[in-house]
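Memo to structure team: turn this sequence into structure tokens by end of day. - J.P.
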Amino acid sequence: MTIRLMLRTVFALAITIAAGLLIIILLLKTGLSDSQQSAQQRYQLSHFANLASSNSIKLTELARQYVVTLQPSYKNEYYHLVKQLGGTEPWLDDRKKSYLDRLKEFNVNEQQVALLTRLKSLLFS
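Reply from structure team:
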């Protein structure tokens, strides 16, 4: 009888350990998935920040080239880029989305989006 009791105890312990390990594995898998999504979002935001920086440089270059040369092509390119930034003309991916709308796609914090909106209103008012 004591052998049966010991076997039952060992079996119950093994089942408990297996269930515990299964729970740990599921938690780790969920954490890995969340980590991968977070890394992907950071990469996309980094790429988007680089795009914003290059667009800013491009706008400055186009404005200077137009002022120096008075060629309408520079002015047209400038306004085309401004319209893309505002979401009224499509980007290279054929989507018409403003910077703020694209930031919202990346689940950027509402407080940060509000700060950008305020900055935009101060700059263009």
